[in-house]
Design brief:
about 110 residues; mainly beta; five-stranded antiparallel β-sheet; elongated
Length: about 110
């Protein structure tokens, strides 16, 4: 419920339904990807609500039936994307939001 409230009220997901990440996986070689999880450094830019920020974080890759699974977690600061949190609830909501990417690359 907390996640839904944050998305609807502060992220304004109805106005900004998508975030875009474009980046590169350091030392990526398709021949080295298998069903064992491997850790990689990912460098790129994320755009949320029309604002772009550079990111550098670690993620894991592994081969799955559908393709290659990418999993990563990293913090984002609400101020970087002009996400306004009302003063009355500011003490209850962190400016640093834990963000998770779980996707399958085809």
């Amino acid at each position: 419920m907390m996640q839904e409230h944050f998305n609807n009220n502060y992220m304004e997901s109805n106005r900004f339904p998508t975030a875009i990440f474009k980046g590169k996986i350091a030392k990526f070689d398709l021949k080295n990807i298998n069903t064992t999880v491997g850790e990689y450094q990912i460098n790129g830019k994320i755009t949320i609500r029309g604002r772009t920020k550079r990111l550098l974080f670690n993620g894991t890759l592994k081969k799955v039936d559908q393709g290659i699974q990418l999993y990563a977690t990293f913090p984002l600061n609400t101020d970087d994307f002009k996400i306004k949190i009302p003063f009355i609830v500011r003490s209850k909501i962190s400016k640093n939001v834990n963000t998770k990417i779980i996707c399958v690359l085809y």
